[in-house]
């Protein structure tokens, strides 16, 4: 996924217009009646990660709401592919179109303007409007919790992280992972390797093996395949996953940062059906308490004491604890968050720095 490289700029450019339209949009968008959602997936339904998490939530929503939700998969981030898929669903009666990629953002915006009576929802998107909402999760919360597991399990105090691309929404998972580790192990250090790809098993294997050669004994990830978990099991170390509960692929997996899209989409579909859709100038940016993200924890190697600490921190986050609270220094010694302050959402999306204790690129 070419994902959210321009999110801050896009949000800033559109916020004034969106804010002016939001109130009117909420009042003007009529109830759709019987909801007829349809899903356009970026990847395959069995990718083990991002796309599969959405597909699994589709199955839950169908069961919980008594719906049949048609879906098309492996639709690339190109208007020439997205538009025909969406318009075919609309022709067949769909009144809610759910996407799954940053690269769908512009096309979804155009479609929402052409079809004002259809609601568009785009996980990972950046565009919003009267009948269009993009949504993402505060995954730094869940990676912080899995980082606690890593910090509690490491014997060498060296933990690793396999990541895709070094920009905001990935960097915050790297930083939060180490902050979580240091919550239980102040001596923990983190080495990150960026693969430059969201889902490349060959690069992920090479990155994980390189980290293990450097002495890490727990590895986390923000990439789309379970390869780092599989390599960890092969090499006899522990790991934590992302997107889904990756313990199905590897006995090494002790915690996973997971998407629970049904927890957001079910009530959202019901609101749309009732005419209560709420436009959001910046889209929805969801915490654990709001649904869409959580953790699958914990594996057999995690002690009852460590699990209790993780769950206590989860409760604290739900109650409002901020992960990026000051004082916080970056690895170059620059103060990034002053004492008593917390990072705002714009600073999170634009995060281009790493906390002290993170090495590698």
CA distance, first residue to last residue:
20 Å
* Secondary-structure class: alpha/beta
Query: Considering DSSP H and I runs of 4 or more, what fraction of the residues is helical?
Result: 40-55%
Q: What name is given to the CATH topology of the largest domain?
A: Rossmann fold
Sheet with the most strands: spatial strand order: 12-10-9-8-6-7-15
CATH architecture title of the largest domain = 3-Layer(aba) Sandwich
Please indicate the count of domains: 2
Beta strand %: 15-25%
The largest pleated sheet is described as: 7 strands, mixed
Topology as a string of helices (H) and strands (E): HEHEHEHEEHEHEHEHEEHEEHEEHE
Contiguous runs where pLDDT drops below 50 for at least 5 residues:
1-27
Which CATH class of the largest domain applies here? Alpha Beta
Counting DSSP E segments of at least 2 residues, the number of strands comes to: 15
Count of DSSP H/I helices: 11
Shape: globular
Taking all residues together, what is the mean pLDDT? 91
**C-alpha Rg, in Å?**
20 Å
Q: What is the CATH superfamily of the largest domain?
A: Response regulator
């Amino acid at each position: 996924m070419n994902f959210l490289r321009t999110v801050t700029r896009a949000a800033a450019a559109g916020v004034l217009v969106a804010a002016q339209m939001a109130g009117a949009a909420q009042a003007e968008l009529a109830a759709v009646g019987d909801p007829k959602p349809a899903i356009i997936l970026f990847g395959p339904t069995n990718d083990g990660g991002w796309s599969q998490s959405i597909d699994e939530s589709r199955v839950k929503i169908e069961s919980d709401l008594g719906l049949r939700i048609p879906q098309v998969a492996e639709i690339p981030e190109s208007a020439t592919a997205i538009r025909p898929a969406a318009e075919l669903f609309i022709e067949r009666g769909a009144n809610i179109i759910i996407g799954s990629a940053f690269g769908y953002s512009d096309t979804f915006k155009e479609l929402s303007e052409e079809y004002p009576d259809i609601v568009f929802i785009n996980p990972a998107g950046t565009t919003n409007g009267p009948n269009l909402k993009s949504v993402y999760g505060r995954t730094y919360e869940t990676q912080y919790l899995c980082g606690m597991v890593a910090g509690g399990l490491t014997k060498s105090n060296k933990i690793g992280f396999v990541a895709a691309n070094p920009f905001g929404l990935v960097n915050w998972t790297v930083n939060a992972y180490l902050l979580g580790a240091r919550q239980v192990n102040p001596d923990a250090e983190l080495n990150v390797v960026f693969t430059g790809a969201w889902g490349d098993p060959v690069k992920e294997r090479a990155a994980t093996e390189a980290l293990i050669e450097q002495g890490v004994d727990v590895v986390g990830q923000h990439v789309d395949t379970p390869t780092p978990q599989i390599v960890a099991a092969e090499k006899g170390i522990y790991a934590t996953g992302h997107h889904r509960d990756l313990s199905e692929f590897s006995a090494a997996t002790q915690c996973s940062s997971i998407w629970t899209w049904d927890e957001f989409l079910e009530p959202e579909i019901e609101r749309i059906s009732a005419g209560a859709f709420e436009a959001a100038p910046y889209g929805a940016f969801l915490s654990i308490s709001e649904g869409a993200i959580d953790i699958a924890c914990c594996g057999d190697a995690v002690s009852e004491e460590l699990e209790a600490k993780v769950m206590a921190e989860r409760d604290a986050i739900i109650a409002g604890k901020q992960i990026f609270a000051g004082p916080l220094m970056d690895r170059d010694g620059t103060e990034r968050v002053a004492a008593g302050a917390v990072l705002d959402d714009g600073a999170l999306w634009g995060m281009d720095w790493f906390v002290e204790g993170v090495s590698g690129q």
